[in-house]
Amino acid sequence: MRMELIQPFINSADAVLAQGLQSPTSIENLTMEEEAYRRKGVAALIWVTGDIEGRIIFDLAPETAVRVASKFAGTELPESDELVRETVFELANQIIGNAVTSLNDQGFHFRVHPPALHTADHGPKTSEDTEALVICFETCIGDVFMNIALRYSHSHRLEAAVGQ
Amino acid sequence: MEKFAPVKRSEDGQAVRYLIVDDSVFARKNLARMVESFGGQVVGEAGDGVNAITEYDRLNPDIVLMDITMPQMEGIEAAEKIVRDHPDARIVMVSSVGYQENIVAALQRGARHFVQKPVKPEVLYEVIKYVMRDDGVAARGAGAGV
Hints:
The complex is a heterodimer of chains A (164) and B (146).
Chain A: H1 3-21, E1 26-33, E2 42-50, E3 52-60, H2 62-73, H3 82-105, E4 110-112, E5 116-117, E6 132-139, E7 142-152, H4 154-163
Antiparallel strand pairs in A: 1-6, 2-3, 2-4, 2-5, 3-7, 6-7
Helix pairs in contact in A: 1-3, 2-3
Chain B: E1 7-9, E2 17-21, H1 25-37, E3 41-46, H2 49-59, E4 63-66, H3 75-85, E5 91-95, H4 100-108, E6 113-116, H5 121-131, E7 136-138
Parallel strand pairs in B: 2-3, 2-4, 4-5, 5-6
Antiparallel strand pairs in B: 1-7
Helix pairs in contact in B: 2-3
């Protein structure tokens, strides 16, 4: 996977999390995922289609999700609260939306679909042309995981080939 | 949250009435907290574009804060339909997807302004004042917060 596709997501997650949590974040680790994805807890799945296609999973351990949601809500939320899931969804939306904005400004055109709850314990295995990258952000209230599997669409690759 | 001088309607000095449209409950609550800190009143909420149109017809709010990416009907299409029936509607798009084409499309279809998520209260406050400039007035005192 090309770093030019990933960097906007890293920058966006760093900015959105740092602003919302009012504390700096850092990348704890960054790994290529070779096996099927294993969900950590509360996870939002967002598909993108267009010049770039694939999916991003935004994933927090249940206790981290509660702490993050409580911080954003400005009040302590119970683990079962619907707002916890909603907060994770909205954070995913903001991070991916900001990254897409940056990629669009670089000439890539694509559409972001509304987030969906990712309930499966395991995600689809990566393939040769859609490797997944897992980024772990360390924040003041726990780790936040982003699993990104994107590739240039077939039509975009054709255009690039014709243009060469 | 910072203190903002309340933005009132100039015609009657009443609170500005808001309709908040977003498929995320969290985002709606967050925006509601902000506009209430500006002295506004949230008169309705909707989770998609179809309901936004229905709620606009029913409530006739002063300002609509409208997300773009939503199920059933997206925000830009809903804004266009609302403005077609209510040319004076003040719609502010609030979205994390802030690239130029999206902004231009929203403005061309009748939105008055665009605010990118994550929303900073001081930015939204200035946009509200700007959008209400023909009809709203920020009360003096209480620290403008900006």
